[in-house]
Amino acid sequence: MLNATMPASRAPTEADPADDHALVRAAVAGNMAAYEQIYRRHSPRIYAVLWRLCGGHAARAEDALQDAFLQAWKALPGFRFDSSLATWLHRLGVNAALMELRASAHWQLTDAGEEGQDSLATLVAVDRCAGTTLDLERALETLPPRARAVLVLHDIEGWKHHEIAEQLQMAVGSSKAQLHRARGLLRARLGETA
Hints:
Elements: H1 17-28, H2 32-53, H3 58-75, H4 85-103, H5 105-110, H6 114-118, H7 136-141, H8 145-156, H9 161-168, H10 172-189
């Protein structure tokens, strides 16, 4: 879902898996144009996910995207198509974003457990003009990073709780609790009743 806050140049595109095989072989053989085509083909969808994971922070999402494609370039000779190229690149991108989020002090402060939930009361409410509602993308940006990551990975990307728990280094129960928390906060931010 694109809106006015996500750069339009990042509109998702479809990729042909058969073409991906040829592009990977060419890129591994040193064809930089082939790797550039892989980037152009897959970066928009990956960027959209990273943008959401990073709370709408374009610079953080771009950094994670570049990290992911740098890792992909290094690992591409070992890629065996056990999964689709899109899935593999997507996972690298998500991992890069999560690594950056885990390293940030904000992640640690807002998601420190029960104490972190108390800090939700200090979040600035988004000003709403009469007759308008807060859109989903903007509401996602206001969620604490850990809750946002679980919600994006589970509800938007379709990950299972055990996958999220492994990636975020938390218990499966914590993943479920964070998802419940994120959904509740979204409902509150969107003005819905539970």
